[in-house]
Structure formats: structure tokens, C-alpha cells
Amino acid sequence: MGFDEEWAQLRANAVDRMAAAPAAVDTVEAGPATATRERAVARLADFRSSISLIPLDERGSLWTAQLGGLDWICAFSGEEALARFAEARGEGGQEWPFLRIAGTGSVNRTV
Fold first, then answer.
1. String of b and e for 94-105 (b: at least 16 CB within 10 Å)?
2. Which residues, at least 6 apart from 94, have a Cβ–Cβ distance to it below 8 Å?
3. Do 50 and 102 contact (CB within 8 A), yes or no?
4. Is the dihedral angle over the CA atoms 15, 83, 111, 106 positive or is it negative?
5. CB-based burial label for 53 (10 Å; 0-12, 13-18, 19+)
């Protein structure tokens, strides 16, 4: 199974799990939901302060992939991760132009 197929399967499984879960109730109480929200905020802060590599497509635009009806921007934490992606696509021998961008910049460019 290639990268694209594996990623699609993982995302589909996550969507199925979310659909099967009971609806979340937002409460003020500290608990698992609050802890999860705090972890998500911390991860977003880490992302905003990190550098990501975003490959460019043949038009010079940000490389995106459609999954679950959404367009996802492909971003990588370093050159090794980007190289693994290229290898998984069978395009490891090619030169891949990319942007090196701070997480804040990628969020601001897309939102």
C-alpha cells in the first residue's frame, strides 16, 4: 500500500470513529475535554513557532491533496520527511521545489 492509499485509509478510519462517537457536550468543568483542548492549543502553538517545508506543485502553488472532500496542504517538518514523501510517491530522484515557512506564516497564508 502506497503513502496516498495508507493516508486515505487512516483519515477514513478517523472519520468513521468520529461519526460513531456520541456528540460532545461542551462544559465548563475541567476534565478530559478540557485537557484535550489544552493539548490541542499547545500543539498549535508549537506548530506556529516551527518551520515547515511545503512542496510546490508544477504551477508553483502549494502542494495540496484532496481527502474526505477537503484540500489538505502537504507540509513537512524537515527535508528528511519531505524526501520520504517523495520516495513513497516514486519520485525520489527528482528535484522538489519547496517553501520553508514558519508555521504562523502557513496558517496566515491559508486562513
1. eebebbebebee
2. 86
3. yes
4. positive
5. buried
What residue segments make up the domains of the chain, in order of their start? 51-111
DSSP letter for 23, please.
P
Is residue 87 scored above 90 in pLDDT? yes
Measure the CA–CA gap between 4 and 10, rounded to whole angstroms. Answer: 10
pLDDT of residue 1: 61
Dihedral sign for Cα 13, 86, 80, 104, please: negative
Q: Is 67 strand, coil or helix? A: strand
Contact between residue 65 and residue 8 where contact means Cβ atoms under 8 Å apart = no
Question: How many residues are there in the chain?
Answer: 111
Phi, psi (rounded to 5 degrees) for 51: -105, 135
Between 63 and 109, residue with greater pLDDT: 63
